[in-house]
Write a structure and sequence with these properties.
By secondary structure, the chain is α/β, with parallel strands linked by helices. It has one domain: TIM Barrel (Alpha-Beta Barrel). Helices cover 38% and strands 15% of the residues. The protein contains 14 helices and 18 strands. The longest helix has 26 residues, at 204-229. The radius of gyration is 21 Å and the shape is globular. The termini are close together. The model is unreliable at 185-191 (pLDDT under 50). It binds 6-O-phosphono-beta-D-galactopyranose. The site of 6-O-phosphono-beta-D-galactopyranose has 13 residues, from loops.
Length: 478
């Protein structure tokens, strides 16, 4: 059966400033928390340090130097036939410390040139305001989003760039994978979101929920402000949806799955419905958490609900309460453990490959919110091999093809309103989880290794022509 995508469907690709740009201290840019993270890899968690690490630890100081290569790269994106290109603005390029009144003109000018080049090549910019980064100064002096002052600093930054680019950028989203700090709850060292820096403190969960709520309030204020700047703006949230299935049909496994998903839906429920869910208020009261919020902030949440739900989808998970199974204990339900799903394969990094899970997620989220959905990350990280100046990546084509088929079924069979698809790592970039180059996602290879060696030469992989064909046909056979 052939399924056609809507003519308006936004076929694109996604990256993030700190994983692609480099030029980390160029043209007045301030230090970002992304610039002071240790590299991870081999299961080592990345951490924020108290200062700048020497370059050898740190390939993403220079990333793939998109800052100086973007014209060349956008020609490749145009050749692919992209309709949209998702990236983020590095907050510390615009406000180096984050608490200044006046912006850094050189930072604003860079993004003017980037957006002009995209638009001149028929590509819509899709812009994330904070993609896992805030100016390091806002962490060092204010403590990140645990401090409500960050709300005003973020609103000032967002207002500055939304006004500057109001005739160039139509699609915005506020915080990348805003829920990941909660997911990181079970392994606090893994995730450093723009909300909190996950240090060794005793009241971690209370801090994480306070920071998350402050981010949600900041996001809502920006949505309301953005609609005043340009009523045509489409401003979304951005969630990491990893559906967690009950491992068995034991009723406790089902309840554990609901509780784990509540930890994710907490964020998008507030982004979409504009109020703090009863299950969260109940949870905080039970735990004695003193989460601070005013009536003015509750009103702001109500006024600043999003236009679409953006999300990343890579994998699914499973949870069980059955005593005989082994897994990482989680706090969401008595005796709950995260376990592998025996019915799916996993990538070299253990990410469970589940294309049907994408169709399931599209159905669940669309039924929950009845808003347009936007898949702004989906991709297959792998060890690609350069052989005779070619990269054969059938595994990446297979992964993406199966996920695109499920998207098509969600649209045609299930009636989901899906506005676009920007697969992650349209070009090889630095892995967030490891800070290294070897976990490659791109349709375009970049000659750079974990130690930062290489010519930065760009090379089309086999998947480049494949994706080009998908976009040109705008349909798939399932
Ligand atoms: C998501 C982030 C992206 C990207 C992606 C892949 O959580 O939003 O920034 O990093 O994960 O993860 P990794 O780079 O660790 O393979």
């Amino acid at each position: 059966m052939k399924i056609k995508f809507p003519d308006s469907f936004l076929w694109g690709g996604a990256v993030a400033a700190h994983q692609v740009e480099g030029a980390w201290d160029v043209d007045g840019k301030g230090v970002s928390i992304a610039d002071v993270m240790t590299a991870g890899g081999n299961g080592i968690a990345r951490k924020i340090t108290q200062g700048i690490l020497p370059n050898e630890y740190y390939p993403n100081h220079e990333a793939i130097d998109f800052y100086h290569h973007y014209q060349e790269d956008i020609q490749l994106f145009k050749e692919l036939g992209l309709k949209a290109f998702r990236t983020s603005i590095a907050w510390s390029r615009i406000f180096p410390n984050g608490d200044e009144e006046q912006p850094n003109e050189a930072g604003l000018a860079y993004y003017d040139q980037l957006f002009d080049t995209l638009l001149a090549n028929g590509i819509e910019p899709v812009i994330t305001l904070s993609h896992f980064e805030i100016p390091y100064h806002l962490y060092e002096v204010y403590g990140g989003f645990t401090n409500k002052k960050l709300i005003d600093f973020f609103v000032h930054y967002a207002e500055t760039v939304m006004k500057r680019y109001k005739h160039k950028v139509k699609y915005w989203m506020t915080f990348n994978e805003i829920n990941n700090q909660a997911d990181g709850q079970h392994d606090l060292h893994t995730w450093t979101n723009s909300a909190v820096l996950l240090e060794e403190t005793d009241n971690k969960e209370e801090k994480i929920f306070q920071a998350g709520l402050n981010e949600l309030i900041a996001s809502a204020k920006v949505v309301a402000l953005g609609k005043k700047i340009n009523p045509d703006f489409q401003i979304g949230c951005m969630m990491a949806y990893v559906p967690v299935y009950p491992y068995s049909c034991h009723p406790d496994d089902m309840m554990a799955s609901v509780k784990v998903m509540d930890r994710r839906f907490f964020y998008s429920d507030i982004h979409v419905r504009g109020e703090i869910p009863a299950y969260a208020v109940n949870d905080w009261e039970k735990k004695g958490y003193k989460i601070q919020y005013s009536q003015e902030e509750l009103d702001a949440l109500k006024e600043g609900t999003v236009d679409y739900v953006g999300f990343s989808y890579y994998m699914s998970g499973a949870v069980t309460t059955l005593p005989e199974t082994k897994g990482a204990a989680i706090p969401d339900y008595p005796n709950a453990k995260m376990v592998n799903n025996p019915y799916v394969q996993a990538s070299d990094w253990g990410w469970q490959i589940d294309p049907v899970g994408l169709r399931y997620t599209l159905n669940v989220v669309y039924e929950r919110y009845q808003l347009p959905l936007f898949i702004v990350e989906n991709g297959f990280g792998a060890y690609d091999k350069l052989e005779d100046h070619q990269i054969h990546d059938p595994y990446r084509i297979a992964y993406l093809e199966e996920h695109i088929k499920q998207m098509a079924l969600a649209i045609s069979e299930d009636g989901v309103d899906l506005m676009g698809y920007t697969p992650w790592g349209i070009i090889d970039i630095v892995s967030f989880g490891s800070g290294e180059m070897e976990k490659r996602y791109g349709f375009i290879y970049v000659d750079k290794d974990n130690q930062g060696n290489g010519s930065l030469k760009r090379l089309k992989k086999d998947s480049f022509a494949w994706y080009q064909g998908i976009i040109a046909k705008n349909e798939v056979s399932v």
